[in-house]
């Protein structure tokens, strides 16, 4: 649409009146929108139109009006209103055609205006829809941002928690290393004190016997007035200050020589005990399961091992003076260390038992296995027995310490009673050692039988798996050769699936039957193991035994099951 401009046309009438009319111009401008609103206003009434027409054309200026309209129509491309070129005679047909074309043009412009209005409404609705979608997407973006912030905060908290756990683990490892060093030092001190007490006890016992013999001789002997001369014919030396001083010097020299020999023996004994403790520590650590660590933890462990080695190097210089500690502190440290190592060993053995029970639980009957309650009761009973034995050992050590610390009395009855008690204790210890050796032999025999049964079971299972694979292969080939017919691809696949499903069901049934018959021997052997497993040994000789059979059985079981998984 163009801008509407007023065109002033001067008419040749005598009154010199001016006629104004709206025409369309081709130049477009932003004011066209406001002009369209004016043009789209309702049409004027008939009276106003009549007045407008009367103002344009009158009886006096009809010819001028016609010429003006003809000129305007010709400029707009319409045909002329006159029939001839001179413009003398008006053509009604051409006038009517021009009016019809004007009406058609008016209708066309009205339709275009209506289409533009509908298009404008559509665009407005689309704009509203896009604005709603924009608000929704903006809300979703804000929600996702809030969620990302929450996840970042949660990740930060988890990282802080992970760092704290790493620090706690590092502290625990440091504590374990310190405790192990303390245990080693206390073990050496305890063994040293025990040897020293045994030597003191032997000396006191010899002195006691000497006193008893001397007293008996004095009671039964007679005082001799004149002594018989010496065998070599020499006279005995007179007791003077010089002779007494010389005798004291000889006595001190003898004591110094004895102390030096004793110190050498103690150094040799300490070296042997250190080697023994290191060997015990290595064997116990080898029995315990290795822990899987992350690369960061492994790096921290390497640093910790370097620090622990440095601490051990610095601590070995002070180990020479550790034998000066008191017997009670060393005894407590050694007892705590042995308890800790035995607890770790016990937990490891329990874990191995749980693994074996999990492997065999699927195929064993409920009557053939030991219930968990009975196992827990047995463990509690063994723990009570161990606690009672520890208390008894503590009381005996306290009594022995009191007896050694108390001054020697000249009363014969008390010494005889002590000697009797010690002999009785020695006999009891011999009996306990004998019982312990028997239990150890039984345990070794049962372990050997268990390993043989496990190996036999593995061989039988391997043979059975090979026979089963050959039978399934033969069965599958025979069934496919008998039922092979020219069918479609879908029918062939369904038959093959049915055959495989039947073969797998038969295989599972045969597996269950064979496992129940084969695991009965192992269960009968495994029921006897918890009776002698947690035996508290007072000597380090028990540290030398190992438990390789359970792990070997588990590895062998995995190796046997691997072909079955590949076949399926």
UniProtKB/TrEMBL annotation:
<dbReference type="GO" id="GO:0036064">
    <property type="term" value="C:ciliary basal body"/>
</dbReference>
<comment type="similarity">
    <text>Belongs to the ADIP family.</text>
</comment>
<feature type="coiled-coil region">
    <location>
        <begin position="242"/>
        <end position="283"/>
    </location>
</feature>
<keyword id="KW-0130">Cell adhesion</keyword>
<keyword id="KW-0175">Coiled coil</keyword>
<dbReference type="Pfam" id="PF11559">
    <property type="entry name" value="ADIP"/>
</dbReference>
<dbReference type="GO" id="GO:0034451">
    <property type="term" value="C:centriolar satellite"/>
</dbReference>
<keyword id="KW-0206">Cytoskeleton</keyword>
<dbReference type="GO" id="GO:0035735">
    <property type="term" value="P:intraciliary transport involved in cilium assembly"/>
</dbReference>
<feature type="coiled-coil region">
    <location>
        <begin position="127"/>
        <end position="214"/>
    </location>
</feature>
<feature type="coiled-coil region">
    <location>
        <begin position="372"/>
        <end position="399"/>
    </location>
</feature>
<protein>
    <submittedName>
        <fullName>SSX family member 2 interacting protein</fullName>
    </submittedName>
</protein>
<dbReference type="GO" id="GO:0007155">
    <property type="term" value="P:cell adhesion"/>
</dbReference>
<keyword id="KW-0965">Cell junction</keyword>
<dbReference type="GO" id="GO:0005912">
    <property type="term" value="C:adherens junction"/>
</dbReference>
<dbReference type="InterPro" id="IPR021622">
    <property type="entry name" value="Afadin/alpha-actinin-bd"/>
</dbReference>
<keyword id="KW-0963">Cytoplasm</keyword>
<dbReference type="InterPro" id="IPR052300">
    <property type="entry name" value="Adhesion_Centrosome_assoc"/>
</dbReference>
